[in-house]
From TrEMBL:
Pfam family, one: FeS_assembly_P
Full protein name: SUF system Fe-S cluster assembly protein
Organism of provenance: Chryseobacterium endalhagicum
Annotated SUPFAM superfamilies: Fe-S cluster assembly (FSCA) domain-like
InterPro entries: Fe-S_Maturation_MIP18 (IPR052339), FSCA_dom_sf (IPR034904), MIP18-like (IPR002744), SUF_FeS_clus_asmbl-assoc (IPR014291)
Ranges for domain MIP18 family-like: 13-83
């Protein structure tokens, strides 16, 4: 079964909701608002590819955070598989944070 564009958009919204429930342990802001998610691609078949980064390459949760993202996104209805790619290009910086995240952290 192939998903329609509308169904893919709905799955995408669900995925973003899930991503907003995952927090960087060192910063009290979710990984989506922090700008750690670079890309989310969803195929017609429900295969999801996520490209994300960490605040630093030697982040203490370098192993567990991507696995948590993969597990949580995999539970979204309609998602068949999750391929997670961790990248450090471009490397994350504070400018990638949303206005909301900057406000939360008192940077505005």
């Amino acid at each position: 079964m192939k998903f329609t564009d509308d169904q893919i958009a709905d799955i995408g919204e669900e995925i973003i909701t899930v991503l907003k429930s995952v927090y960087d342990p060192e910063i009290p802001v979710d990984i989506y608002e922090l700008g750690l998610i670079y890309d989310v691609q969803i195929s017609e078949d429900g295969d999801v590819k996520i490209i994300m980064t960490l605040t630093t390459p030697n982040c203490p949760v370098a192993e567990s955070l991507p696995q948590e993202v993969k597990d949580k996104v995999g539970e979204v209805e309609g998602v068949k598989s999750v391929d997670l790619e961790l990248t450090f290009e471009p490397s994350w910086n504070k400018d990638m944070m949303s206005e909301e995240a900057k406000f939360e952290l008192g940077m505005l």
